[in-house]
Design a protein that fits this description.
The chain has 87 residues and is mainly beta. The chain has one helix and eight strands. The strands form three sheets. It has a four-stranded mixed beta sheet with strand order 7-6-5-8, covered by helices on one side. The protein is globular, with a radius of gyration of 16 Å.
């Protein structure tokens, strides 16, 4: 558990964030920490997605991420890559 200084002399504990996920290959359901997920934000819906490795079968999973998913993942501390288009 991380600690964060709120005001001088006072600390607050921040609980780790977990996200529910499922693997389309083996159909396992599990919770992943923010560090186990990656978020890529592109210029379109097709290029905005999150990814992770299934802890059960080891498959690389990539799923589309709409606005709400992007908001939840970024707010939960998931590492984000912003994709830039070449002109």
């Amino acid at each position: 558990m991380r600690e964060m200084s709120v005001m001088h002399g006072i600390t607050a504990s921040i609980a780790p964030v977990f996200f529910k996920a499922a693997c389309p290959d083996c159909r396992a359901r599990f919770e992943l920490s923010a560090g186990a997920l990656r978020l890529a934000i592109g210029a379109s819906r097709r290029t905005t997605f999150y990814s992770f490795t299934c802890p059960e079968c080891g498959s690389a999973v990539r799923k589309p991420a709409g606005e709400r998913i992007v908001e939840l993942l970024t707010g939960g501390g998931v590492r984000t890559l912003r994709l830039h288009s070449t002109v």
